[in-house]
Amino acid sequence: MLAELHSGWEIWRQFAIEIGAISSAEGKELEHRFCNALKEAALNQCQYHQASDPALRFLFLLQTALASGRAHLADRNGSAPDLSGRCGWRKAKGRAWTPQGTRIGWLSATDLFLEPMTSYEVARQMAGAERLPVSAQTLRHRLHERGLLASVDAGRQMLLVRRTLEGIPRQILHLKARDLVSFSTD
Fold this sequence. Notes:
The protein has about 190 residues and is α+β, with helices and mostly antiparallel strands.
């Protein structure tokens, strides 16, 4: 779209100069202003595009679910992970960590393993009336296209990978933990 806008502008500018509506110097000044405005519009549009990107929206919805106690992540054994408070667990005074909401996956160091259908359903519920605009399978492809999957099963040509979690072999989505859980110390 930007290229088409710039092309149309260039045609108009050349025409305006040829018929004497503007001088060549005015044309250059207008070109400079036009390019700056086009860059600013592109940056503003980028923010809207990211908000409508299904993969980024999915991650945002899961972050919201974890923060609100509607979902949680466990460690590979099903227990409270490191950074439990950021993974949907709550701790009452003098008590142990308690998981909140639905378990959507597992956290292991820098790896995040999401149960595909459960995490999709939680995100869909969190979206409410806004709805997720893609199916679970299409979402997996969008996550892969955005480079958000840490690994895929190339041998089987599948986006789901096999991992043993809580002693059970599972087919899961493998993401980078940093894309969902904040590791900052503040």
